User: Fold this.
Amino acid sequence: MSTLSVSVWRGRESGQYQSFEVPRLESQTVLDVVSYIQRALDPTLAYRFACRVGMCGSCAMTVNGRARWTCRTHVDKVARDDRLEIAPLANLPVVRDLVTDMTPFFDKWARARGQFQGGSTRKDGFARVPPGSQARRLADAGIECIGCGVCYSSCDVVAWNPSYLGPAALNRAWTLVNDVRETGNRARLAAVAGDAGCHACHTHMSCSERCPKQISPTAAIAGLKRATMEAALKGEI
Ligand code: SF4
Ligand code: SF4
Ligand code: FES
Assistant:
């Protein structure tokens, strides 16, 4: 049976890589490899996952230098010469081994006003937004974000400027700006217009290239740049 040589980050911000030999199997995912190490070789290895099917967003790690969701990343696609290097996501504090603290990431969703704020009561009927309408298409473009942090971890501006809201929070803000049921968009546009908001993006595209859900935060940020400029010219923010 062939084997994989796997280097896994151990420790916190400071630490070192530890090497493991893992049996190579057909259709094996990177998450399968990490789970094998934890179950068969070293039960003290810390990592995180939940759904295993690309829905929960909890399994993202850095694999051979690039942020990826591990439950849907096949070893065949990423192993180089039967080698894998697995580390925690970049741009986030490390709790231990492969587990990052997502608090700064989700705090930025809150700062970008990523919570839906509707104006209807339970007595009102359902809002009808035709599937083919422009409003629906714009809102749908970013709605499937699973909060995995791959884009955030891949963004150079986040690395240079830790207060930058980042691609996922801004994508969420743009999704809500396009939601015809929303009532909080003036405050939302004001929240994303500052120095750490959409205008700090350098349009490097790493977020859009690496998002496992094929979302384009870059396009969302471009939309926010236009919308905040228009709001500023009208004196609304
Ligand atoms: S396009 Fe903007 S948000 Fe996306 S990775 Fe580049 S700088 Fe970051
Ligand atoms: S935009 Fe994509 S990469 Fe970023 S958190 Fe959402 S699903 Fe993950
Ligand atoms: S374990 Fe849920 S997205 Fe990978």
Remarks:
- The beta strands are 3-11, 15-23, 60-63, 66-69, 83-87, 94-96, 99-100.
